[in-house]
Amino acid sequence: MVLIQTGNIDDLVKKAGKYLPEEKLQLLKRAYDFACNSHEGQVRLSGGPYVAHPLHVALILADLQLDSSALAASLLHDTVEDSSVSLEKIKKDFGHEIASLVDGTTKLEELSRKTPATGLKSGIQAAQQAENLRKMLVAMAEDLRVVFIKLADRLHNMRTLAALPPEKQERIARETIEIYAPLAHRLGIWELKWELEDLSFRYLEPSRYAQISRMVNLRRNQREAIINRLVSVLKDEFEKAGLQGEVTGRPKHLYSIYQKMRKYESQGKRFDDIQDLLALRVLVNTVPDCYNAIGVVHSLWRPMPGYFDDYIANPKANGYQSLHTAVMAMRSIPLEVQIRTYDMHHFAEYGVASHWQYKEGEKKDGLFEQKLGWLRQLVDWHRELTGAEEFLESVKTDIFNDQVFVFTPKGEIKDLPQGATPIDFAYRIHTDLGHRCIGAKVNSRLMPLNYQLKNGEVVEIIAAKKDKAPSRDWLNPNLGYVRTSHAREKLRQFFKRQERAENIELGRNLLEKEMRRLGLKMGSREEIARMFSYENVDDFLAAIGYGGVSQHQIAMKLVSQQEAPKQAVEQAPVKKTTSSVRVLGAGNMLTSLAFCCNPVPGDAIIGYITRNKGVTVHRADCHNVMRPDLERERLVEVDWGQSDRLYPVRMRLIAWDRVGLVRDFSTVIAEEKINIMSMTVTEHDDGTSVIDFTLATGSLYQLSRLINKLEGIKGVVSIVRMGEDSAVNPSTSQTS
Fold it and tell me: Is 81 a catalytic residue?
């Protein structure tokens, strides 16, 4: 049963009347009447009158206390798109400002509706989603109220999402949690963020949503009793200290609990082990009161090491300010405590929407513009990016990720996405500094260039005195040198300016190297170029050379092509076998992997029907299945089924011999959580060592990532996947 949300203009007038003058309320009534006439006879899929939707969008914005122009535009935002009303009519009746807001919202709505209702993995949809986001953020830089209307529009659509078919529910929910909820977070609008996340979670993971709801409700009474007791104790301590403040319990929303559960499950823990489901919020009058309050809390209950954050002295990039701490209350109760002023709390709930810029009769000030500095910077960056999908990557990595705040040696604060490195920091300061970077000091200590920066660290870049070319290795995502798309784009631009012939030659070498080390058979370069939408092979090779196409992307694309399921006339269901390989069109058959070529998921494979041991699975280019004397009629089509099985892969690493070589080699493999099944080390008179080893790996992608890491070890000359052994009859070469 679909819930039909109702309401009337009186609800909006009452809510907006708390902060708008009477003449502005008359504007809202006029806009509502106009919307009713424009949408007369139209019905939403949920069953209610269409005009109920813009009304609820306006009610959401009234909670944010937006100005009368934004509220009127929200009431009118669907009239141009979904009725015969023209934008000129809106401008004539309501003025240029409201018409401009309606126009901006309509353009964003048109983009959303053009997005196909297929899975988000569709290439066409990804590009359209990226273009949608690009235009939204550019519109936001011009007038933030356009995006407030869009966020409120999306929130009401999510509240009534049950009326849509399941495939649309999933598409809209995924777009909401990937784009709209992070955008609300970046704007600091907590009230919208948490509800967008919870509603998306409900449709994307319905069983987990129901499970967590039950677990939370089962213990609600117990938690509320503990919270009430803790609130009472803390209030008494504040009174003794002469401190005035409001203490309340702070509820956790379901999606944040789900994220904590996933983290705890990866550590082998249960829901009962989550330590910060209990939380208090303290509101006080002044900033000094915040620090006095934290002193009272820490003197009353033992603080937990590493859990104190001062976002008052170091505000988040969206302007959020508060003191966060975690304590062990009453000896055994883990408790989160947030302390802030009333003004900070209002901003925390409503973000930049709470700023007086959009209150009636007030003017802009520099502080508001400063808080939106990240947005202005983003619009500048978007002009440098060549495509909408690159812009989407930029936003997701540089803007929507959690931030870390680091200092320059002169004490200036720079905010970067979590996981950013000294190279990202150098490019954030200046492009030339990034190009000339040869080292970095973090808190006066030399650190590797792929070190992940942490809050509060002081970063000093060591730069070459003369012009120096950056390393192409920095563009390899597996090596972790660059995490921000801003730095990555600057690197691509640098290498793109290099000699085209040099880039083509380098690209050819990198492509051949990637194919060779993964043991993949080299197809025609034209065919591979077309996989990446390049008609000209030289353009494709040049793109590899300057970093526009990475070795990682090549590996992923080739693996996905080779893992694509083959079509067969008949695909009978097969029981899970030892190797989880499916035999197409042959019913249930035992399968096993050939010793001679050790195929791995991602390899093209072929099956050979043995006389008494089922089907032996070989790589398609294995010399044993290509022998001219083989009985070809016993070859069958097979593909990789769904499995988390590990597969043996034989590798050879050649390096200059030195003390610690095997230790470094083993450490890298252990960090990738890959098991070494066997290993032999041979030393040669020329000073090199050869390590032959067999790994248990899950896919070619995992193998490609590991090879990149191993190539970074000091002294490594080469590393390749081994070919087949000497000829072995395919009917006998199988795993045990």
Answer: yes
